[in-house]
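Preliminary data (for renewal application), magnesium ion complex.
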Amino acid sequence: MADENKDASQDPLQENLFSLEIISLKPIMGSKTAQLTHTALASDGWEYAVKSCDDGRSSLIKAAKNPSLVPASEWICNKLADTCGIATPPCQVITDTNNNQTFFGSRYDLSALATPVSILDFIDHLADSDLLQRQVWAIYAFDQFVFNIDRNTNNYLYSIGRDEKTIVQAFDFGLSSLVLGWPNQTGTNLLPYGCPTTDTWRSIKKITGTNQSCIDAALSVLGNLSRINVDFLEMICDRMPPSWLPPLQRTALLSWWDSQRHSRIESVRKEVLR
Ligand SMILES: Nc1ncnc2c1ncn2[C@@H]1O[C@H](COP(=O)(O)OP(=O)(O)OP(=O)(O)O)[C@@H](O)[C@H]1O
Ligand SMILES: [Mg+2]
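Predicted structure:
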């Protein structure tokens, strides 16, 4: 019985249950990204885009108030998005056993593209597909909730469904949530105008218009966020290495979630219905 009550994050055996090991780590070649410096081949045989607390710290992005919280933000947002019914690539905690450094890993979707084949093509698909419209509205509501400033067209993964239509997954929450001072410093504030998320949204909304099916998709995400209780969020936090989120910030997040998240959800609901 005592074991059941033990905090999993304090138990190295438990922690290993939730992590993969690195087989090899490779620096990113080619064009520079803001936070991603390495990819890793992991013990499950798949390649991951990996981010450590140090990658955040060395990034030059000025908007990042707490850059070392990049892995925690990625982990929490991916798990919450997934729970709300938003498609995201699978993610894992990955450990380098040489030095016990831990990484957030986003599993490479080898069949997807991280850039639309062409923007015009994406616009055509968006105008044509009710499903894609619902996806981008759901992702927008979620991004507003977690204060993700960076949803540009290169932060969706694009695939072609069996009906030949484009579908997307949301990835890259490295400039969102805890990194940006969410939730206590953002309170109920919506994203600022002029950030990639709001700029991209303006263009998307011109194409989709505002129809009930899109609104319903966004409201469904907000409804799910209001149903995720603090114990569930705590479980998500317990499954990442304790070093990713200092105890004070963890306590502040959980306490905000328990008492104040509904005001933020309400603020996003008004934006979605606007
Ligand atoms: N799960 C994944 N599947 C496929 N490609 C991925 C995945 N994760 C990351 N990538 C690729 O790695 C690139 C950089 O990843 P990511 O956007 O998370 O890092 P970043 O440093 O925040 O980048 P940027 O500043 O360019 O947005 C992506 O644009 C994409 O090409
Ligand atoms: Mg990116």
